[in-house]
Amino acid sequence: MTTEKMLKEINDILNVPEKKAHVDKITPLLHGKWELQIMMEVCRADVLRFGEYKKRLPKITNSVLTSALRNLESWGLITRTQYNEIPPRVEYTPTQKGKSLLPVCYEIIKWGAENSLENPQ
Predict the structure, then answer these.
(1) DSSP assignment of 64-84, as one string?
(2) pTM to 2 decimals?
(3) pLDDT tens digits for 102-121?
C-alpha cells in the first residue's frame, strides 16, 4: 500500500466519529510502558505463566505486571485461567482479539530490529 493510500485510509477512519472513538480507546495499550511488550510476548508464546513473563521482562515489578495483565484481560486481549492445584497455577492466553494484534506486533518488532532510536536524554 502506498503512503498516499495509507494516509487517505487513516483520514477516512478518523473522520468517522464512531471509528475514531474505537481508535482512541487503544491508546492505553500504546501509552503504557508494559502492555504492548506483554502483548508481544503473548504473540510469541501463546500461553504464558506469571513467572515466564517475569523472566522475559526482568525489569517489570510484580505489581506492575499484575496490573498490566489485568488491563489486558479487561480489554479482552488475554484470558486468565486459574487451575486449582497446589501450588496454584495461572496461565494467560491471547483471545481472538488479542491474536489479531499479531501482525501489528510483528511490524513493530520488525521495525524495531531495523531502526534505532537515540535516547533523548
Answers:
(1) HHHHHHHHHHHTTSEEEEEE-
(2) 0.79
(3) 898 888 888 888 888 776 55
